[in-house]
Design brief:
Helix content: 40-55%
Number of strands: 8
Largest sheet: 4 strands, mixed
Oligomer: single chain
Radius of gyration: 26 Å
Shape: globular
Strand order of the largest sheet: 3-2-5-6
Distance between the termini: 85 Å
Length: 426
């Protein structure tokens, strides 16, 4: 066989992203916090880029998830039912790790039984102590230990305590914050002038603290719901019930700086061009996010009103076709984006769900089935948990044919233990 070297010409074809397209894709995939970091890096390197800080929210302008927990409506916010299975499983696992003394465990389990979906304690400590034939201070001592469980704010006795625990964890709890949390009624009404007098700081400082409070989670227990963002901060989109019915979707401007292209002697023509391109990309990103988010939420308006159990089957291909976009664009936009709703902060990507075949030939969204499964488990008797077979039969009554192994798969996805591990004594 000849070993002589040969010259051979071959032709290959490959796709290579230019720098501009790479930046555009990065901006599409970024959530609000990631986008802010990237813009700050660009402003530090390019003197033609100037960032103005995000505007402070107007007095009394709360995110939708706050609308039913502010003073005057707290009674409506407290849901009088047991905590969901994912939340309860998380709490019970934490109790197993943290508390070994038999009597303290007995108290901890009684407190866990009183936990509500919001994450708040639903019954007074005095009542729980009386039922356990113990002194309230003994129950309080265990409660303080349970309030150290993540996410911070669980086992709070009211909204003020819930926010205080989170503010302490964030390192922003001081005398000024203490007064503001004690007078949430003034915050809710937007009376910043009176708060400024009470705290002896400027109204601008009160507004800055207000933004910190608004970023806290008034219902930390909702972080265990199927669509929820864990430890929600500033969302990318905000959806509110419109006055004339329907839903209004807007960008959350309070989490994004404003980008300006400016002349600078320290800059270069190339830098000026790059700044203009960056501004155009930012505008395109925001426009695309608003379009995609609006289409998703228009299709899932029943879920906004009724909860995740009302989700309908929806694919990214359907949304892309409706908007005239490529499916990969929709995928990138929803990758890290969230929307603040009256029911909490939700991931956009989790609102997509394939259909599970129904008995009538139709289909039910798999995400809706998982939410129904959560509610079935949440309502089961503590001493007689439902088996996978029983759960499958109950889900089938809603029109979906679900196999037992499918229920087991959904349980694993939701971190719900099997029936024998969910049994709890009363």
């Amino acid at each position: 066989m000849s070993q002589r070297p040969r010259i051979q010409v071959t032709q290959t074809q490959r796709l290579q992203l230019n720098a501009g397209l790479q930046v555009s894709i990065r901006m599409l995939r970024a959530d609000a916090a990631g986008l802010v970091r990237y813009l700050e890096e660009q402003a530090a390197d390019n003197p033609h880029v100037r960032l103005d800080p995000p505007p402070l929210p107007a007095p009394g302008e709360w995110l939708p998830r706050w609308t039913r927990v502010l003073p005057g409506a707290i009674a409506d916010a407290v849901e009088h039912e047991g905590a969901g299975p994912s939340l309860m499983a998380h709490v019970l696992a934490a109790i197993d790790r943290r508390i070994s003394d038999p009597q303290d465990r007995r108290i901890a389990l009684a407190l866990a039984e009183a936990l509500e979906p919001s994450g708040w304690l639903g019954r007074p400590v005095m009542v729980i102590a009386r039922e356990l034939d113990l002194k309230p201070r003994e129950v309080d001592a265990v409660l303080l230990r349970l309030q150290q469980i993540e996410p911070v704010g669980l086992f709070a006795r009211d909204l003020t305590e819930c926010l205080r625990l989170q503010a302490q964890d964030e390192g922003c709890y001081d005398p000024v914050m203490a007064v503001m949390l004690a007078r949430l009624d003034l915050l809710a009404s937007g009376d910043m002038a009176r708060l400024a007098r009470l705290t002896k700081v400027s109204e601008a400082e009160v507004l800055r603290r207000f933004k910190l409070i608004r970023a806290l989670n008034p219902k930390p227990g909702t972080e265990f719901e199927s669509l929820a963002v864990a430890h929600p901060k500033e969302p990318d989109l905000i959806v509110r019930l419109a006055a004339a019915g329907g839903w209004d979707v807007t960008l959350n401007r309070s989490c994004l700086p404003t980008l300006h292209v400016v002349d600078s002697d320290a800059g270069t023509p190339a830098g000026l061009t790059a700044a203009k391109v960056l501004r155009n990309m930012l505008e395109a990103r925001n426009s695309t996010l608003l379009r995609v988010g609006g289409e998703i939420l228009a299709r899932q308006k029943a879920a906004l009103a009724q909860g995740p159990a009302a989700l309908v089957p929806m694919t990214m291909a359907e949304v892309a076709e409706a908007l005239g976009l490529h499916e990969s664009t929709v995928s990138r936009v929803v990758a890290g984006s969230s929307v603040d709703t009256p029911r909490g902060t939700w991931w956009l990507r989790l609102m997509f769900s394939g259909a599970v075949g129904g008995a009538d030939g139709g289909g039910v969204a798999a995400a809706a089935l998982r939410d129904r499964l959560v509610r079935l488990v949440a309502g089961e008797p503590a001493g007689a948990p439902l088996s996978d077979e029983v759960l499958a039969a109950a889900l089938a009554q809603g029109g979906a044919v679900v196999a037992r192994r499918t229920v087991a798969k959904y349980r694993a996805m939701l971190n719900i233990p099997p029936a024998h591990r969910r049994r709890r004594g009363r």
